[in-house]
Structure formats: structure tokens, C-alpha cells
Design a protein that fits this description.
The structure holds 2 protein chains of 2 kinds. Chain A is mainly β. In chain A, the strands form 4 sheets. An 8-stranded mixed beta sheet of chain A has the order 20-13-14-17-16-19-12-21. A 6-stranded antiparallel beta sheet of chain A has the order 7-6-9-4-1-11, with no helix packed on it. Chain A is elongated and about 60 Å long. Chain A is 9% helix and 29% strand. Helix content of chain B is 20%, strand content 31%. The chains are: A mainly beta, B alpha+beta. Chains A and B meet through β15 and β19 of A and β3 and β4 of B.
């Protein structure tokens, strides 16, 4: 059983839970950018947690199936169009053999997750089927005409995680909030920041009021995590996302909670973000 | 003394006084095999400890790591790799000029140094090697493409490019050693704490 890629749209990659355990070799964690939507997609179709799915940025994906199966689309308000019929969001859908499935352009959100019951049988690289954006580790980006093998994973029943709430993004200050003036920390926790077009799955680059350092000098590079808000000397924050590098060279003022990092993954260029201490 | 810095809900950042202490702490945490610890990132003065919040918590990891007694760091325990180098890099003469020594002296110093892989981070398989007694500036203008296997110097570090990539290090030679191979169980030839010896070979 397989899925054929008919069209990819702006960006489609395979993603799963990523490849932890290799950071000491310089391997980025990668994995789904919105982990919550990724988990919901797998739970809806009965896949074990961590099964690979297609991460589809700004819609445009069109695929066909050679056998009947169950699919689900999560993450944005993009419509899943099966044989010309729009399907309800965040729900499991049966498709018949030969069905053509399209992911429309979302009006809200950025990354949709298309799960197929059985998962994708492409080879793992260092224990993961995620395509890493900066190190290039993992399967090649799917292209029109590619055929991806599906399954065979046993179906499991697991609760579908809840949809995220609205509101400001929760952060925990640190590890380097002491590198910033008290005024900068206050500004960070009260001002509005705008997502710029230079953002991608490596990091969200934000524009907003400057966040001046309280120190001069350089911080030696150190390990960073998903959701870390790194502030270079120009004061413009970068929120690291799933494909972030292993280390960063600028102080991290705060780290988003995992749920906030998932919500940030859906922020489009031009969106306004606010942070609140968790 | 290890200081623990808050680093979100899925990690702890442990900070120590210097690189030796960071490598010792890294080795101790790695050897301890703490439940729920999924990844370690050693760096110049820190070790980032990533954890699975479904198994453990930052508080539990912090107290478990505080209870470890990192010994003095042992280079021998982490293994030794010998890397054969043809010393014909495009910046070799420039480095010699900068240091005011002969090209042969640069080679003698590079091969005579007991290097230690301190930490990675630039790219998979890349290691910042420490132990050199000299300081060499980066190139004023980085090269857009440096071939895999190029051996370079920057600041107090030496390193070998694992992949074709851009870079600003001074290139003094090249090796046939494969720094990164996904077909190996540990794809990286060099891992933190490992001792590295460069050996001059004919082209």
C-alpha cells in the first residue's frame, strides 16, 4: 500500500518525534514543529505516538492512495478535500482506493499534519524519519511523482490530545535572563512582537522593541532547546523551533512551555506574539 | 561547583567553571544513565541535559546531577583517534607567517599537540578540538565552500570539516579520515572527551 505525491505546495516534509540521543554528535533534534498537532493526527487514525506524518506548510499538498485507508489532518484550519468533498477538521476520515486528497491553503495557522493509518515505511535515519532542515539528515523532501510506502503498523487506541488554548505564550525565564536589563525583561513580558518573513522551522525571527543586554562580552556557545528565545546583540529575538541547531551563541532570555512552542509553530509572518511568565 | 540554570520544562542547564569541569560533568552524567535523560550537549562551560517530562522532571534531574561526583576528566577513557593529514592547506604558509615560524614548525606543533574533542555544535560530526598553545585568527573573508576532510585552525581550536561547507577557518591540511558516516553505529568519528592525534603523511 502506498501514497503518491501529486503536488507538494510550498513545503512538505516527513516528520516524527525527531532524533533525540544524538546531540553529542552534533545532530539537531528535528521532529514535528507543532508536536501537539502531530500527536493529534496520529491518535485520530490509530497510529502509535511518534509515527511519521507529512508536515505541510501553507497547504497545496495533493496525494492519492492505491488502497482504502484512514487519514486525518490537524494543526490549521486548512480543509482536507477528499474526492472534491471538504471534510471536517481534526477528525479521522476513510478514503477509498484511488481517492485524491488535497490540503487547501489554511486561513489560520501554518503547518498541517497529514497522518495515514499505518505510518510511512521509509527508512529511518538515526532512529527517525524526520527531515532535518539545517543538517539535511533524514529522508529527502517528497516531490511530485514520489510514491511513499505506507505501514504496516498495528492500529492502537489512544486519547486524542486537546486543542491548544488561546492567549499569550507562556514562558519560563532563563537560563540567561540575568544577561538582560530589568527593563528588557519587563519589555519582553509585556510588549507585542511581530513574526517576520525570515522565520522557518529552525526559528521564528521576531521584530519588536529592543531587549538590551545588561552585560558586554560574549557568552560561550551552549546547548539550546526548542522554544528557547535567543536574543542577539541587535535585540531581535529568535524563538528556536524543532529544527534548531544543537548550540546557540547568544543569551536565551526565556524558554516557551512545550504547549506554547506548539502554538508558536502555527504563527505566520505578520502575526503578533506576546509572552507571559508561566 | 555546578550551578543549575532553569531552561524550560524539558531540560536543565548545568554550568561549571571551565571546559575541563564541563567535560568531567558530561562524562559523569552520561555514565550515570539517569532515567528520562534523553540528550546531553556539552559546551565550553555548560552541559545541557534534555529530559523527557513524561518520565522525569527538571527538579529530579537537578538533584540527581547534584548528587553525582564528577571525577577529574580522563582523556584516556574517552578513547583516542589518530587522523592522518597531508599538510598542504592553502592557509598553511599564512598561518606560519602569522606565528612567525616555519611551515615545518606549524606541522610539528599541530602533530605534537594532544588535542581533545571538547564539544560539537557547528554541524553533525564536527568537533572543536582544544589543546593548542597558539591563537590563530579566522580568515577575514570566509570561504564559500570548504571540502570535507579539510583540517583547520581558528582561535585556539583545531577542527576537521565533516562535510563540504562554507567556513572561515585557516586551512592547513586535509585528511582521508571520514568524520561523519551514517552507516556507522556512531556516525561521528569524534565525540566529546576523545583524544585526537594528527599524524603527518605524504600526499
Amino acid at each position: 500500500m502506498s501514497l503518491r505525491i501529486l503536488r507538494t505546495g510550498p513545503l512538505v516534509v516527513l516528520k516524527d518525534a525527531g532524533r533525540p540521543g544524538h546531540a553529542h554528535q552534533g545532530v539537531p533534534p528535528s521532529g514535528a514543529v507543532d508536536r501537539g498537532a502531530f500527536a493529534r493526527a496520529n491518535a485520530l487514525v490509530g497510529n502509535p505516538p511518534g509515527t511519521a506524518v507529512l508536515e505541510c506548510t501553507l497547504g497545496g499538498l495533493r496525494v492519492s492512495f492505491d488502497e482504502p485507508t484512514t487519514i486525518a489532518l490537524t494543526g490549521t484550519d486548512a480543509a482536507l478535500i477528499v474526492g472534491g468533498t471538504p471534510i471536517a477538521l481534526e477528525t479521522a476520515t476513510e478514503v477509498h482506493a484511488g481517492a485524491t486528497v488535497t490540503v487547501s491553503m489554511p486561513k489560520r495557522g501554518l503547518r498541517s499534519y497529514l497522518a495515514v493509518r499505518g505510518g510511512f515505511g521509509v527508512p529511518e535515519v538515526l532512529g527517525s524519519r524526520s527531515t532535518d532542515r539545517i543538517a539535511g539528515i533524514g529522508p529527502a523532501k517528497p516531490a511530485a511523482g514520489d510514491v511513499l510506502p505506507i505501514g504496516p503498523l498495528e492500529a492502537v487506541t489512544s486519547p486524542v490530545p486537546a486543542l491548544p488554548a488561546d492567549g499569550p505564550l507562556e514562558v519560563d525565564l532563563g537560563p540567561r535572563d540575568d544577561w538582560f536589563t530589568a527593563a528588557a525583561v519587563k519589555t519582553f513580558l509585556s510588549a507585542a512582537f511581530t513574526v517576520t518573513p525570515a522565520s522557518d522551522s529552525v526559528g521564528l525571527r521576531l521584530d519588536g522593541p529592543a531587549l538590551p543586554w545588561a552585560r558586554t562580552g560574549e557568552l560561550p556557545s551552549e546547548g539550546v532547546v526548542r522554544g528557547a528565545v535567543q536574543v542577539p546583540p541587535d535585540g531581535k529575538p529568535i524563538v528556536f523551533q524543532a529544527d534548531h541547531p544543537v548550540t546557540g551563541g547568544y543569551p536565551v532570555i526565556a524558554v516557551l512551555t512545550p504547549e506554547a512552542a506548539d502554538r508558536a509553530a502555527q504563527a505566520r509572518p505578520g502575526a503578533t506574539l506576546r509572552f507571559v511568565a508561566g | 561547583m555546578t550551578r543549575f540554570l532553569r531552561c524550560g520544562r524539558e531540560a536543565v542547564l548545568a554550568e561549571v567553571d571551565d571546559l575541563e569541569a564541563a567535560l568531567a560533568l558530561y562524562a559523569a552524567v552520561r555514565a550515570a544513565g539517569l532515567p528520562g535523560v534523553v540528550d546531553l550537549v556539552p559546551a565550553a562551560r555548560t552541559v545541557l541535559i534534555r529530559l523527557d517530562p513524561g518520565v522525569t522532571s527538571p527538579e529530579a534531574v537537578r538533584s540527581a546531577v547534584a548528587g553525582l561526583e564528577p571525577g577529574s576528566f580522563s582523556r584516556v577513557a574517552a578513547g583516542t583517534v589518530e587522523i592522518p593529514v597531508v599538510y598542504d592547506g592553502p592557509d598553511l604558509a599564512g598561518v606560519a607567517g602569522h606565528l612567525g615560524v616555519s611551515v615545518d614548525e606549524v606541522v610539528a606543533r599541530h602533530t605534537g599537540t594532544q588535542w581533545t574533542m571538547a564539544f560539537g555544535g557547528f554541524a553533525p560530526g564536527f568537533g572543536y578540538l582544544v589543546g593548542g598553545e597558539w591563537d590563530v585568527p579566522r580568515r577575514e573573508s570566509p570561504r564559500t565552500r570548504i571540502p570535507a576532510g579539510s583540517v583547520g585552525l581558528a582561535g585556539r581550536f583545531s577542527g576537521v570539516y565533516p562535510h563540504d561547507s562554507p567556513g572561515g577557518w585557516q586551512l592547513i591540511g586535509r585528511t582521508t579520515a571520514v568524520l561523519w558516516d551514517l552507516d556507522r553505529s556512531e556516525p561521528a568519528l569524534l565525540v566529546p572527551g576523545m583524544r585526537v592525534i594528527f599524524k603527518a603523511v605524504a600526499r
